[in-house]
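Worked Example 4.2. Read the sequence first, then its structure tokens.
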Amino acid sequence: MVRYRPQNNQLDNLNSVIVKHNGKVKNHTEEVKSAKEVLELHSIAIAINQQDFKKLDKDFTDAELQEKNSLNSLTTNKAEIDKLERESSKISGAIQRINRHLTDFFGKEEITLDLDESKKGYVIYRNGQIANNLSEGEKTAIAFSYFIVKVEEKGFQIKDGIIFIDDPISSFDSNFIYHCFTLINEHFKDAGQLFISTHNFHFFNLVKEWFTHKNTKVKEDNEKLSRENKSLKPIPCEFYMIENYIDQKRRNAKIILLDKTLKKFKSEYHFLFSRLNDFLKTNPNYADFYSIGNVARRYFEIFADFKIPNSSNQKQKIEAIVKEVNTEKVLITSVECGKVYKLINEFSHNYNPISAIEHTDKSECMDAIKILIKIVKYSDPKHFEILEKNCL
């Protein structure tokens, strides 16, 4: 009998397979577990491929970023809320100061401010009730009181700042004008630069007197410094006015030095007379004829109201003055009287609608103004003499 005897290396390979097989049989449980893990990973890989894992991953990353931004926003909002709450705690003090100014303005505690329900805004009350239909003067008083209080907050240094106050009393009656001026003087007298513009002659005179006094004080100091050969101080205050003019049929304006009459006198009356007098003595531009009617009307109103302090209209007053002038002999004819009335009535109000579409020859204003000046001169010679002398 012949037996097959494998080569040694073949026998080793066979034994290796048997050993490997015996190992797997012996570790059957572990082999099954490992196989399951491979199957699970394979299933997960298929699921990921089918459900677009990259998109899911991007969505997750975006969601994390959005969450981070939202948390940052919450932190920022909380800080802002804390800041507003701290500021609102200061509003009460500001409201108290504003209300004190309003009480001074109106002479009683009528218009007041208080916090609204959110504690972050204001509510305006009149005698304890929500205020409706505030007058322009009341609105101006509230706005100006608020401005005075708020400009002193948040570290603003008035002595280093520039303050511009534009016509603060435009809607006030005469009772409020001096109080408004006093507030400006008190709060802004040490401002780095202070600009005040106004149309109100009473308020203008108060400011002019204040500024003139400051200039006078510096001039007195400079006289002393000059004697001591020291550097002079600059004059602190200047006065300007806005002058309107016509250029190529368009209305324009420019800033010029204040008229010497306005600067010298406290009376609008002096200024108006000076304008009329200069108009007669110079060669006026054609554009000047469009404004001189208003000057003449205002001048005559002041003169006539002083001469005849009653409720008569301007036509009645000019006729009464001319009648008095003509007591002994006719110095002013009825035709001349009519020219003056036309000047102060028609040329200053433009009642004729045609004037809006055609240019009337307004050179006749010159004759009418001469007659107006003559009426004043004949009516009160001493008054006219002093007025003319002081306006030269």
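Now turn to a second chain, presented in exactly the same format:
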Amino acid sequence: MNDVVAFQDFSDELCKDGSCHVTGDLIAFADFTRRVLRTLYESLFASLVLVALVIAFLTGWRRRALFIPLIASSFWGPAIIMIAIAVFDIQVNMVTVVVISMLVGLTGDNAILFLLSSRRDDLTDGIERRGQGSIQCNLLMALSCLILLLSYFQPPRTLGVLLAAGLIAALFGDVWILKGLLAKRENR
């Protein structure tokens, strides 16, 4: 796909006046992929900002010290998967876009659940009350994603592994990193 994009950029450079252009299925697919990726990054940023705003609203002024631990733990899962995609040079395509979109969609869910279920402004209470259910739900979702490993085609297998890894990373951030950040804050 990179060769097609490079060829298209080269042809656009040759035909700056718009007198010619390349066409075909591969060119159309390359254009589509570029637009999807640009939309992904724009929506990723917008989604993370919206999650941060919701958490800021729910923590309010009284519990504002909880904002940073909640944001850090919530953004952990998507950040780890984005870093893994870059480090392992996993091709960004429609499958990886689906993975990132799903993980960003789940960002902040547990933080909001813990905030709303906490009593007496004690977030640790909310984690204790709803953490077990959150762990069970995430593990079941991660295991369910592994059914895609049985696919004949490689993209669904990649999707299954990335989704399962992302859900486990998000769970780790949502529960244990959050607990660690709260304990560190209380020790100060």
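Notes for the reader: The mean pLDDT is 86. The chain has seven helices and no strands.
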